[in-house]
Design goal:
single chain, alpha/beta, Peroxisomal Thiolase, Chain A, domain 1, 2 domains, five-stranded mixed β-sheet, 13 strands, globular
Length: 350
């Protein structure tokens, strides 16, 4: 059963600021801290490889002392709106109606919402009453690909069906105002908010890149490397500095066997559709992939223009490839990393 990606769209929040515009807010937040520390934090933001970030809140709200309850209420209200816009755009791009969708998979890790966002979308768009729902909440940055893997398996087992995968995230909602740790600061420097939607189909006559294979790879004993701790003030980022090194160490282990079972090597991959976790991770993968004469220019561009939007980011990269147009027969490798620690992959052919 052939499964194809027929549509990818993105939707960014209304609020945005360049790094230069954020620095004054940083300086107010850092007032009272040691001067050397202040300079270090500002330099970190300036060198993070992110020129602009979008947010569901204005910077005044981000740097305001509010409760977890208040921040999460904004997350709920704004992510529902973003998700609806992204889904409507994806349906329009694929010339579909909301009732043409059989499975809806929604992924988000930066807030808490029960019922999940898909329930609101079903009601707002009057989708099928028997649509199959799958909300995914604890996969972090890797969940965009996770959702596509689940959709692929649903569709392989069900001919003539369609699935939506919708990733909506607001990392700025998790910013900890009273936490001056480097983990909180680094995450604030690299993350931004965003939403992306993709439609997959098992109809034989619908066009788009075909999913050739998919797989997950688990790093043993690495739960400490990435995630959130649920504190009284909200979701507190966990981000270990060893992440880039671990990715470099394991890169051949989760790419070579995966490609080999498809009678390919990394040299056969024309395009790397890679989740930009941050500047160091991007540099690490660029060195590994660039040695083969291949580039990750779209990944770097998305990081620069939007920051890391957790699960939605890899779909922003995929949308850019789809809009640019990819040559027929080209092979693409989608790749992202997330809590667990895990690496997840999709092999595509145009």
């Amino acid at each position: 059963m052939s499964v194809r990606i027929t549509s990818v769209t993105t939707e960014s929040p209304a609020h945005s600021r360049s790094t230069e515009e954020i620095i004054p807010f940083l300086k107010v937040w850092l007032a009272g801290q040691e001067n050397r520390f202040q300079r270090k934090v500002i330099k970190l933001f300036e060198n993070a490889g992110v020129d602009k970030r979008y947010s569901i809140m204005g910077p005044e709200e981000v740097f305001k002392q509010t409760s977890f309850e208040e921040k999460n209420a904004v997350y709920k209200k704004e992510t529902i709106k973003l998700a609806e816009k992204a889904l409507v755009k994806a349906l329009e791009k694929a010339n579909l109606k909301a009732t043409d969708i059989d499975f809806i998979i929604t992924v988000s890790c930066t807030g808490i919402m029960i019922p999940s966002v898909d329930a609101y979308l079903i009601n707002r768009l009057n989708m099928k009453q028997d649509i199959v729902r799958l909300p995914v909440t604890e996969m972090g940055c890797v969940a965009g690909i996770s959702g596509m893997i689940y959709a692929n398996n649903f569709l392989k087992a069900n001919p003539n069906k369609r699935a939506v995968v919708l990733a909506v995230e607001s990392p700025t909602s998790t910013f900890q105002l009273d936490d001056y740790s480097m983990v909180n600061i680094v995450s604030a420097a690299i993350f931004g908010d965003g939403c992306a939607c993709t439609i997959l189909s098992s109809y034989p006559d619908e066009e788009g890149p075909e999913i050739i294979d998919e797989a997950m790879y688990h790093f043993f004993d690495a739960e400490h490397m990435m995630g959130f701790e649920l504190s009284n003030t909200g979701l507190q980022m966990v981000l270990d500095k060893e992440v880039p090194e671990k990715i470099a160490e394991h890169f051949p282990k989760f790419t070579t066997p995966f490609l080999k079972r498809n009678n390919m090597t990394i040299e056969d991959v024309d395009h790397l559709i890679f989740h930009p976790g941050g500047k160091k991770i991007v540099q690490t993968v660029e060195q590994l992939f660039g040695a083969l004469g291949k580039n990750i220019d779209n990944t770097k561009a998305i990081l620069k223009e939007y920051g890391n939007m957790s699960s939605a980011t890899v779909l922003y990269v995929l949308e850019r490839f789809m809009e640019q147009g990819v040559e027929k027969g080209a092979v693409g490798l989608m790749l992202s990393f997330g809590p667990g620690f895990t690496a997840q992959r999709l092999l595509l052919r145009w």
